[in-house]
Amino acid sequence: MHFTCEHNSFRTTEHLTCPDSSPGTPQSGFAPSPSQMLWALALGPAMASGAPSSSPSPILAALLFSSLVLPPAQAIVVYTDREVHGAVGSRVTLHCSFWSSEWVSDDISFTWRYQPEGGRDAISIFHYAKGQPYIDEVGTFKERIQWVGDPRWKDGSIVIHNLDYSDNGTFTCDVKNPPDIVGKTSQVTLYVFEKVPTRYGVVLGAVIGGVIGVVLLLLLLFYLIRYGWLRRQAAMQRRLSAMEKGKLHKAAKDSTKRGRQTPVLYAMLDHSRSTKAASEKKSKGLGESRKDKK
């Protein structure tokens, strides 16, 4: 295939050699890249028609732009716990969720695989497809797996019942949500114990929670004591102000009463003085009359 591109005052010639359909045919030149193929498709009709300055097809140009500029679709992302602990004879939930740039498809599928501790090969123990769960009926987890997921909520969790020491190992969750089928799986490690040990994080969280609870309790007691003290101070202040008002009122009454009694006292004093003077004059008159008789 031969293309000749002409632009203003210079001419460029590009030779693209397409592979022959028959096998074993030697190829010459170089293999075209996707962008070169798109340019060839865009420029082919214009060059074939003989137009020296024709523009490429708008649709093909947009296709070329999207292939060169727009980023590829994001891959599906699967999430699981890093590790889970369970006691012998109990049950444990293996959580699996995912993120996808596409809507949840009717063809969505979940696959759980199990690799025993120290083993090299992983075996499929559970599969969900077309809205139906398929549980392994032959292997180690026969009749012990329960599907508790919901694809509508992007949940592919399962429950393993009646745990045993032989269940120790790595479980892998794989999700396909067509057309979004490219992505990494996620793994969770299961540890089965006679008695589930208390993890360091749980102990640390309990200690921190206890310290915070004690601090909050002390703060509450402090505010209650302060509130009671303030109320008592306010009550005492009201009583003192009431007592001061009562004393002032009593003093005002006493002063008013004394002001009323002062003229009476003066009148009584004047009356007693006048009475005394009259008695003295009378006694003097009687004495003089007695002298005259003599």
TrEMBL record:
InterPro entries: Ig-like_dom, Ig-like_dom_sf, Ig-like_fold, Ig_sub, Ig_V-set, Myelin_P0-rel, Myelin_P0_CS, Myelin_P0_Ig-like
Superkingdom field: Eukaryota
Compartment annotation: Cell membrane
GO cellular component terms attached to this protein's record: plasma membrane
Pfam families: Myelin-PO_C (PF10570), V-set (PF07686)
Alphabetically ordered keywords of this record: Cell membrane, Disulfide bond, Glycoprotein, Immunoglobulin domain, Membrane, Phosphoprotein, Signal, Transmembrane, Transmembrane helix
TM stretches of this protein: 200-229
Start and end residues of each Ig-like domain: 71-189
GO BP annotations, alphabetical order: myelination
CDD domains named in the record: IgV_P0
Chain spans, region Disordered: 268-294
Compositionally biased region (Basic and acidic residues): 270-294
Membrane protein topology class: Single-pass type I membrane protein
Assembly and binders: Homodimer and homotetramer.
Family (UniProt): Belongs to the myelin P0 protein family.
Known function: Is an adhesion molecule necessary for normal myelination in the peripheral nervous system. It mediates adhesion between adjacent myelin wraps and ultimately drives myelin compaction.
Name recorded for this polypeptide: Myelin protein P0
Species for this entry: Callorhinus ursinus (Northern fur seal)
Encoding gene (name): MPZ
